[in-house]
Amino acid sequence: MAQKKRTKVRYVDINVNKENFVSKLIGEKKSHDFSDVKLFRKLLSNEKSRILYALKTKNPPSIYALAKLLGRDFKSVRDDIKLLERFGFIEFHLEKTGKREALKPVLIINKLQIIIDI
Fold this sequence. Notes:
Distance between the termini: 45 Å
CATH class: Mainly Alpha
CATH topology: Arc Repressor Mutant, subunit A
Order of helices and strands: EEEHHHHEEE
Number of domains: 1
């Protein structure tokens, strides 16, 4: 019998009131609170969305290959990927090719749900 693929979900719970904006990123391992909308926007920027899409559709073998695929410089992509790893969207797998080793970024979620409570 075929094994059913498990869906890994990250939830972003946003509560807005007249005094402030409070957001919490919730996942399996840990939660992260955001007290400033700028932090939340930084996490879900267009460039990071492009990274997530490329990881899902192209499966690049390394951060370097991902940067080349996106047409961006390596350092910027590496910084973005480290942030995505910190918040539990991706993880790194060590890949060996001959004598070379590379960190392969792997998307570990397949669903992001944003809930806004006003």
